[in-house]
Amino acid sequence: MRRRAITFIELLIVIGIVAIIFAFAFPAVQSARESSRRIQCQNNTRQTLIGIQSHHTTFGALPSFYNGTKLSYPLREWDLFHMHSWRVPLLPYVEQSALKETIAWDLLATESKNLEVAQTIVPTFICPSGNDPSEMGWGAKHGAFGTPFEQLTDHDKYRVVRSDYDAMAGIQKLPDLHVPDGDSIDYVTLGIWGWPVFSTGQTSNSRLSSYRQGKFRDVRDGLSNTIAIVERTGKPIEYTDGRPDTSSDPNANYPGQVGWSASNSYMWSINGNGIGVNDNNARGIYSFHAGGAYVGMADGAVRFLSESTDYETLIHLYGRSDGGLPERIR
After folding, report:
1. Domain boundaries along the sequence of the chain
2. Paired residues of 84 in beta bridges
3. SS3 per residue for 24-69
4. Which residues sit opposite 243 in a β-bridge?
């Protein structure tokens, strides 16, 4: 009995059909994966919010931006990059109690004895849509204060795992782009994260003379109307409009906090003037999700903010006592 072999034309047809099926299926698979990642990101945001609320219930205040170490007030801006961050007190609430017990609380978060902690991936602080967390960011050690970045050696640097979620102290609203000091908190609508006092005027260039932890009773606009945490993905690389910002100093990597365990300069924890959702991860809310980013509200709710959210709306969402949201956006 003679067997009929497949012809070359029939083979091409089969390959074409398979290619068409793959072309339709691949985007669907990618979409399903991103949907799963977004659900996980949403859950991470919610779990962090639960930790914040549990901390407030237990201690009567939100976690401090600046914890532990032997540094004392007034603090230089440089000091603010090396204390233990607001995330560290939350570790017991995100199933990381054992990790917190290993921290040398009286030492800087960036000292060698604490680097094993700083280089530990905490899943709750990582958005699965972001970069590989094993690609660590770096910062200059406390002892390298004043050394130009281009002169730093490996001995002067520490390497740490990032967080994709950040506590933003407020949002900047400059009345004029040419104001004398754009870093003054006189032009900042403060959020839920406390009360800073600077030693010589309200500017990041002076020392932070005191810092009081935020409390929910300070939020006059209502917890459901006020942002507690935001996505700030992409570290240690600076991203602008979805692309790495190649105009930035390549030695600086990310102009802000590079690790989850260490604190940050107060002014670098403020949403920049005119910076909207997914505009820039150095100065505002930023995600790798299409169309917007997740934010956690002070009442524990998680919202997905659209990229089209106007800046005035962001100001109202950040502010703890600026009159609340207009009726049209509640």
Report:
1. 32-329
2. 67, 262
3. HHHHHHHHHHHHHHHHHHHHHHHHHHHHHHHHHHHHCCCCCCCECC
4. 240
